[in-house]
Design brief:
EC number: 3.5.1.-
CATH class of the largest domain: Alpha Beta
Organism: Undibacterium danionis
Number of domains: 2
Number of strands: 20
Radius of gyration: 21 Å
Structural class: alpha+beta
Pfam family, one: AstE_AspA_cat
Number of helices: 8
Protein name: Succinylglutamate desuccinylase/aspartoacylase family protein
Order of helices and strands: EEEHEHEEHHHEEEHEHEHEEEEEEEEE
Helix content: 25-40%
Shape: globular
CATH topology of the largest domain: Aminopeptidase
Keywords: Hydrolase, Metal-binding, Zinc
């Protein structure tokens, strides 16, 4: 195990931060996996999973069981970790720019294709090598002068040429769910099973360039552009894993999640040895465009009426939104048939607050599909 720190540009006189990461295995030897936690710095379950992964990967490395390189970033957002307002962590948005820390990553598809199109061949493995080299070159040519853009760039440089990318997040309150590219589902399904995910949300372009999609979409974008002319493998299997809710930070759960991730790395050829468990069946995937948020029409006290993970029908009561002064109760109903999987953790909200999410089977929404 090697601990490395990448310096970030100073945001102010007398202040400097670094982005630390751990490397297991040898660069360039075998397949590569990249795992990061807490890109939204106030989402902490992934940080604890990374702690357990560190110990497990270190032991596997000492035993000679690693067959490739694993990069682990236990705290992927030192900028957000430093942001506290009136005692409350502010890790989702950069306070200087207002930007979401998990948006606006580098969209490389066009640039990479322009560099490699004349070199593509009938050999899929050679094309993979050419495209990965172009990805690295594109990212090395990028210049960043401010701290936030530098952090984004360094994370992409570590991850974009990996075979497997796992981005560990959580929701406010939720059951475990994942986001991944539609073309990747067949290969991601075992991970959903191992993690016992309740929901898997699929999309090819969710909008706003989140980290996982910035890493993997290059491959299906190029494949779509060249069509049948050249074989382009989907060489980056990238997934966002939502590890339940903010307060789900405990050793037993984190150990189980870390074990599931190690098993998945075994399936991907990065670690030797037998799986710790039989792979459970995966949940039925649903389109991200079928994930329908339920929004508060007014301010009020929130009372949830159903349990997370419940299967609901359109029109089922999900929430009582109460004005305790007037005595008014607005009952908010499930917008579609589906799985009720996530909700806001505050119990008093302002108008426009997204209160709950239901994963439906039909793609309904268009445009940018992610929350702010």
């Amino acid at each position: 195990m090697e601990l490395i720190s990448i310096p970030l540009p100073s945001p102010a006189l007398g202040t400097n931060r670094v982005l630390p990461f751990l490397r297991f295995g040898t660069p360039g030897v075998g397949p590569k996996a990249y795992i990061q936690a807490s890109l939204h710095a106030d989402e902490l379950p992934g940080m604890l999973v990374a702690h357990h992964l560190r110990n497990m990967l270190s032991e596997l490395e000492q035993q000679g069981q690693l067959l490739g390189e694993v990069i682990l970033v236990p705290a992927a957002n030192p900028i957000g970790l430093a942001q506290t307002l009136l005692g409350t962590s502010q890790g989702r948005f950069d306070l200087r720019t207002g930007q979401n820390f998990n948006r606006l990553f580098h969209s490389l598809s066009e640039n990479v294709l322009a560099r490699v199109r004349s070199q593509l061949t009938a050999d899929a493995d050679l094309n993979k090598t050419l495209i990965r080299a172009a990805i690295r070159t594109c990212l090395m040519e990028q210049i960043s002068t401010d701290e936030l853009s530098a952090q984004r760039l360094e994370l992409m440089r570590m991850a974009a040429d990996a075979d497997v990318v796992l981005d560990l997040h959580c929701d406010c309150e939720s059951v475990l769910h994942i986001y991944t590219g539609t073309p990747l589902w067949e290969r991601v399904a075992p991970l959903a099973g191992l993690l016992k995910a309740h929901v898997a949300l699929l999309e090819t372009n969710s909008g706003d360039d989140p980290f996982d999609e910035a890493c993997s979409r290059i491959w299906w974008d190029i494949a779509a552009q060249v069509g049948d002319e050249f074989p382009i493998p989907l060489a980056c299997l990238s997934v966002t894993v939502e590890l339940r809710g903010f307060i789900d930070v405990n050793h037993d759960t984190a150990q189980q999640d870390a074990t599931a991730l190690i098993d998945f790395l075994r399936l991907q050829g990065l670690i030797n040895g037998a799986l710790s468990q039989t792979i459970p069946p995966a949940c039925e995937p649903t389109p991200l465009a079928g994930c329908i948020p339920l929004t508060a029409p007014t301010a009020g006290l929130v009372v949830y009426l159903r349990e997370l993970g419940d299967t609901v029908k359109a029109g089922d009561p999900l929430i009582d939104l109460i004005d305790p002064v007037s005595g008014t109760v607005q009952q908010l109903l499930a917008p579609v048939d589906g799985v009720y999987f996530a909700r806001e953790n505050r119990r008093y909200v302002s108008p426009g607050t997204r209160l709950s999410k239901v994963a439906g089977r039909e793609a309904i929404r268009k445009g940018s599909l992610l929350s702010a």
